[in-house]
Amino acid sequence: VGEYVLKLLDAAGHDAVTMAETENRAEELKMLGAAEVFISESGDFSKALAGADAVIYMPGAGSGAAESQDALVDHDAVSAALEAAQREQVGRIVYLSAVRTDEPEETKETGGKHKPEAWMEDSGLTYTVIRVSKAVSKPGKGTIEAAESLDGEDAEMPYEDVAAVLVEALDNENTFRKTFEVTAGETGIKEALDAL
């Protein structure tokens, strides 16, 4: 998802700053459109966030975490990133939740997946929390279904469309201070988010 986000941000004229684990990965991300890449130093996000206007945060986006419904999320790392954003006075955060649209309550609780959402809602930041159905490696269609709550059991959504929703939500005021769910559908992304 993150690679698609970088490409879309670059195409929209945003200067995207991101973090990488290695120099090799940093070079790959620059080729995808990142204006600047910081090498991750023990979870310290402050350098990458300094001077940022907004953050799109995707916990575990590159690790295949979205493949497993019961994946545990290091909510302490997520909270550290969000707190760093608050310290750096980044006013806008779009958060790709680790909670899936069809996820049972017990796995949200045991994995601590709900904690970053609760933190965000209490943070005073202009947040958007987006829960998606199972993200899959299929071509994006540019159409979705979005609502406060969806009952799309076994639903899937292409990575490319997940990324497009994150980037569209960034400046879409109708998504500010909202938590909602998205899955593949028949409505254009902007139209679907405008209708929330």
Write a concise keyword list for the protein shown above:
196 residues; alpha/beta; six-stranded mixed beta sheet; two-stranded parallel sheet; 8 helices; 10 strands; 36% helix; globular
What does this protein look like?
The longest helix is centred in the middle third of the chain and has 13 residues, at 75-87. The radius of gyration is 16 Å and the shape is globular. The chain starts with a helix and ends with a helix. A 6-stranded mixed sheet has the order 3-4-5-9-7-10, with helices on both faces. Strands 1-2 form a two-stranded parallel ribbon. The protein has a two-stranded parallel sheet with strand order 6-8. α1 (2-11) crosses α7. It is an alpha/beta fold. It has helices spanning 2-11, 23-32, 46-49, 75-87, 105-110, 115-122, 159-171, 189-194, and strands at 17-20, 36-39, 54-57, 92-96, 126-132, 134-136, 143-147, 156-158, 178-184, 187-188. It contains 8 helices and 10 strands.
Structural class designation: alpha/beta
**Which overall shape is indicated by the principal axes computed on the Cα atoms?**
globular
Order of helices and strands: HEHEHEHEHHEEEEHEEH
Say how many strands there are.
Answer: 10
Radius of gyration: 16 Å
- The DSSP helix count reads 8
Which spans have pLDDT < 50 for at least 5 consecutive residues? 61-72
Helix content class? 25-40%
Strand content: 15-25%
Which whole number gives the mean pLDDT? 84
| Spatial sequence of strands, sheet with the most strands | 3-4-5-9-7-10
How far do the termini sit from each other? 23 Å
